[in-house]
Amino acid sequence: MMGLVILAMLALVTLGLLAALRVRGGTLTLTAAALAIGCAGYALQGSPGLGGRPNRTAARSPPVPLTAARKAMMGQFTAADTWTTISESYARRGKSEDAVGIMRSAIRARPGDYALWVGLGNALADHSRTVSPAARFAFARADELAPNHPAPRFFLGLALARSGEPDQALALWREVLAEAPADASWRPFVEDGVAALSADARRR
Amino acid sequence: MIAEAGLAGLWLAAALAAVQLGLALGLGGSEGRRIASIRAVAVGQGALSLFAFAALLALFLRTDLSVLLVAENSHADKPWLDKLAGTWGNHEGSMLLWVTVLASCGTVVALFERRLGERTLVLSLAAQAALALGFFAFLLAASNPFERLSPAPLEGRGLNPLLQDPGLAFHPPTLYLGYVGLSVAFSLAVGALVTREVGPALARAMRPWVVGAWILLTLGITAGSYRAYYELGQGGWWFWDPVENASLMPWLAATALLHSLNVLVARGGLRAWTMMLALIAFSMSMTGTFLVRSGMLTSAHAFAVDPTRGGFILALLALYIGAALTLFALRIATVREGAPFEIVSREGALVANNLLLSAILGIVFVGTLYPLVAEAATGEKLSVGPLYFNAVAGPVALALAALMLVGPQLRWRRDRVAIIARLAPGALVALGALVATVLLAPSIDLLPRLGLAIGVGLVPASLMPLVGRSLRRTPLATWGMCLAHLGVAVAIIGMASDSAFTREKLASAVPGERLEVGPWLVEFRDVVPLAGPNWTALEAELRASRGGGVTILKPQSRSFTEPPTTTSEAAIETDWNGQLYAVLGEQDAGTGRWLVRLWWKPFVTLIWLGGMLTALGGALALAGRWWRARATRRRFEEAEW
Predict the structure, then answer these.
(1) Residue in B with minimal Cα distance to A105
(2) How confident is the model at residue B640 (pLDDT cuts 50, 70, 90)?
C-alpha cells in the first residue's frame, strides 16, 4: 500500500506548495477537490501494493566448462591455451565482452593459429548467447586454417546446441565422430554429445 | 514504488491542468486574484509533470522490469545512455515527454509573461491547459507509461537496435522541445483572437517562443538527418520518410511564422496571416504526432500500432485544430488591419517568402497524407517518394532561395532607390557560378546546377545587410539574420553538390581486392569479428588512399540478440571537401565474396554545417532581442526612479 502513501504525500505537498504561492479560499478548496479526483483516478488505475524489480545486470548463465574438451582436442601449455584460459576466466566472471577482446588481441599477434580462432568463436557465442554471424565467421576461419581438425566443427556444434539449434549441432557432431580415430583422446566428448542430442531428438 | 509515484504524479498533474482551465475560464476563484492563482496552479502542474517524467527516467535507468514499458523496450545489458534514451524511444515515454514539455512551457508563460494584457494572458493559459489536459487524458486512458507487470519477467525485450545510438539521446528531445514550444504560439494566438488584441505586443510575446522552437526544430532536423545518414547505411541524408516530413512541416510553418512575426512587430502588418500561421504551426506538430503515434506509418520512429490510440489522437486533433480554426473564422474579420506597404519592400518580400514556404508546406502535406487517405478510401497501397517531392518541392524551394538573394536587401514599406547596387553582388556571383558549372560540369542535372548557382550567390547576398554598417553597432539580431541566411546558403550548396557530384561503387569483393570511387583507391584488406556491449559484429578493414594520404575505414555489420536484428554501421572519413562513406554488406556463402558499398560525397558535410549555422543565427537573433529588451527595461526603470 506504499503507493497510496506516496499519493497522499504528493497531494499534500502540492496543496502546501499552492498555499505557499498564496492560493487561498475557494480556489484552494477547488484545487483540493480536483486533486481528490486525481487521487481517485490513481486508486482506480494504479497498483499501490506492487513493488519494483530493478534489474541492473542481466542474469547470465555461466559458460559451459569447455576446458577439458578444448585441451583434449587442441592440446595444453600452448600459447593458444594460455590466452583461451585467460579469456574463459573473464567470461566466467560475466565479462564476456572483455573475453572477446582478449582473444582478438591474441589473434592480432598470431593470426594463423586456428585454436585462437576457435577460442574467439566460443567467446563470441557466449557473449551473444547465440551463434551470431561473427561467431560463425570465427569458427569458419579456424576451419580454413585447420581444414581436417575436429575442433572448429565440434565447438561450432556446441555453440549451436547451446543456442537452440540441436539438429544442426547433431549433424556436425556425427560428421566429426565419423572421422574420429578410435583411440583419439577427445572421442568420448563427441560420443557423449551425440548421445545426449540424439536422446533429446527422440524426446522431441 | 517509483512507478506508482510517477503514475500518482501524472494523475495529480492532470487534475491541476483541469483546475487551471477552469480558473482561466472563470469557474471559481476571486476576480482580483485569478491570475496569481492560475500562475501557482501552472507551476504545480509543471512540477508534477517533471516529477512523473523523472520517475520514468529512473525506471529505465534501473531497468525496472515490473513496468510493462521498460520490459518491452529495455534490457539490462544496454549501455546506460541507451537506457536513458529508451525512455523516449517508445510510444508512451515519448508522449509523456511531449506532455511534460507542454506543461513546462505553460509554467514558463505563466511565470514570466508580462507583455500581454491580463485577459489575453489568462485565455492563453486556458488554451495551454486545455491542450495539456487532452494529452494527459490520452496518456492516462490509452497510453499509460507506468502500467505494471506481475510477475515481472526475468529480462526485457530490448530496444530497436536502429534506435540504439547516441543520437537518440539528443535528437528526439530537441525535436519535441521544438514541436511543443510552438504550442505557446498557438495558445497566445487563441487568447489574442478571443480578446482581439492582435498587435505588435502579442508578436513580441510570441516571437521568442517561435524563434526558440524554430532553433530546436532546426537542430533536431539537422541531427536527425545526420543520424539517418550514418545509421541507416544508405548514404542518403533525407528520405522523404513520412516521419521526417512530420518534423519538416512544423519547421516550414514556423519559418514562415517567424518571418511574418517580424512584419507584425516592425510594421504592425500581416495580422490575420500571422495568427493563421501560429495556429497552423502547432497544428502541424500535432499532425506529425498523429502520423507517428497512430500506427498508420511503418518507420523506425512509428511506435504505436493501435487504432484506439490513433483514434484518440485524431479526436484531439479534430477538437483542437477545429476549435482554433473556427475561432479564427469568427474573429478575424474584426481584427484591425495593419499598416499598408508596397510590393517592392521588405514586407512584400516577406509575404512572398511566406507564400512560397506555405506552398512547400502544402506540397509536403499532400505528399505525406495522400497515400494514407488513398488507402483509407480505396484500400490500395500507394507510395509517394523522392521523385514527387524533389520534382515538385525542389523548384519552389529554389524560387524561395532566389528570393533570399533579394528580400534581405529591401527596406521596410517601399524601396526604389539603389536596389540594383545591393542586389548586384549576389546576382553576379550566382551568375558566375552558373556559368562555371556549365563549363566545368556540363552533365549535371538542372536542379542541382541551379541550386549550386543560387547557393553560391546567397553567400555574399546573406552578408550584404552588414555592408556599410558599423559592425560593432550592428544589432545582434541583424547578425543573427545574416548568419541564418548564410547557413541556408551553405546547406543548399551541400545538397546541390551531393546531388550533382556523388560517386557510388557497389562491389562484391574479397580481401586483397582494390576498388576505385571518385578520387579514392580503396583496398579491401580483411574482415574480423568483434563484440560490443550488447552486440557482436563483423568489421571490414578498408585502406583508402588519395594522393599521398592514407586512411583506414572500419564499417561493421552488427548483430543484436535482444531483439534479434542486424544493422549496418557505416564508416565515414571526413575530408575538407567531402566524405568517403563505406558500408559492409553480407558475405556470399557460395563465393565467399563480401558486398561492399562505397560513396564519395563531395561537400556533403555542408548540409549539416549549414543547418547548425542557421540554428546559431536564430540563437544570436534571440539573444540579441532578449539583450535589447532587457536594456530597454532597465533604462525605463532608471528613468522612472
Answers:
(1) B530
(2) low
Q: Say what percent of chain B tops pLDDT 90.
A: 64
Is the CB of A46 inside 8 Å of chain B's CB atoms? yes
| pLDDT, average across residues A96-122 | 95
> Alpha-carbon distance B402 to B458, whole Å?
8
- Which domain does B475 fall in, by range? 417-501+606-640
How many angstroms separate the CA atoms of A80 and A106, rounded? 8
Q: Please, which residues have CB within 8 angstroms of residue B78's CB and are 6 or more apart in sequence?
A: B63, B86, B158, B159, B164, B533, B534
Residues of A within 8 A of B150 (CB-CB) are: 47, 50
What is the pLDDT at residue B298? 53
Average pLDDT over residues B464-491: 93
Please check whether residues B53 and B112 belong to one and the same domain. Answer: yes
Taking a C-beta distance cutoff of 8 angstroms, is the pair B144, B308 a contact? no
Which chain A residues touch B587 with a CB distance below 8 Å? 137
- B425/B484 same-domain check: yes
- The residue type of A190 is V
Closest to B3 (Cα-Cα) out of B40, B50, B44, B56: B56
Task: Please tell me the predicted confidence (pLDDT) of residue B300.
Answer: 46
B443 and B589 share a domain? Answer: no
A55/B64 touch (CB, cutoff 8 Å), yes or no: yes
Give the model's confidence band at A183: pLDDT under 50 very low, under 70 low, under 90 confident, else very high.
confident
- Domain identity same for B447 and B520: no
Task: Give the least confident one: B59-63, B294-298, B405-409, B591-595.
Answer: B294-298
Q: Does B556 touch chain A (CB under 8 A)?
A: no
Average pLDDT, stretch B143-171?
Answer: 80
Residue ranges of domains in chain A: 2-45, 67-203
Is A24 in the B-facing interface, judged by CB distances under 8 Å? Answer: yes
Q: How close is the nearest chain B Cα to the Cα of A61, in Å?
A: 13
- Comparing B592 with A64, the larger pLDDT belongs to B592
CB contact, 8 Å: B59 with chain A? yes
Residue B586 inside a domain? The answer is yes
**Cβ partners under 8 Å of residue B508, min gap 6:** B588, B591, B593, B594, B595, B596
Task: Say yes or no to pLDDT of B297 above 70.
Answer: no
pTM comes to 0.90
* B548 falls within a domain: yes
Contacts of A42 in chain B (CB under 8 A): 7-8, 11-12
Nearest CA among B540, B538, B529 for reference residue B507 = B540
pLDDT confidence of residue A1: 72
Shortest distance, CA A172 to any CA of chain B (angstroms):
18
pLDDT score at B333: 86
Put simply, the answer to whether A18 touches B2 (Cβ < 8 Å) is no
Give the confidence band of A65 by pLDDT, cuts at 50, 70, 90: low
Same structural domain, B79 and B146: yes
Residues forming beta bridges with residue B503, ordered by sequence position: B600
Name chain B contacts of A24, Cβ cutoff 8 Å: 33
Whether B22 and chain A come into contact, CB under 8 Å, resolves to: yes
**Local confidence band at B91 (pLDDT 50, 70, 90 cut-offs):** confident
B21-26 average pLDDT score:
90
Instruction: Calculate how close chain A gets to B93, using CA atoms only, in Å.
Output: 17
Q: Give yes or no for a contact between A165 and A143, defined as CB atoms under 8 angstroms apart.
A: no
Picking from A17, A39, A57, the nearest residue to B44 by CB comes out as A17
B390 Cβ neighbours under 8 A, 6+ residues apart: B447
In angstroms, the separation between the Cα of residue A6 and the nearest Cα of chain B is 6
CATH topology of domain A67-203: 1.25.40
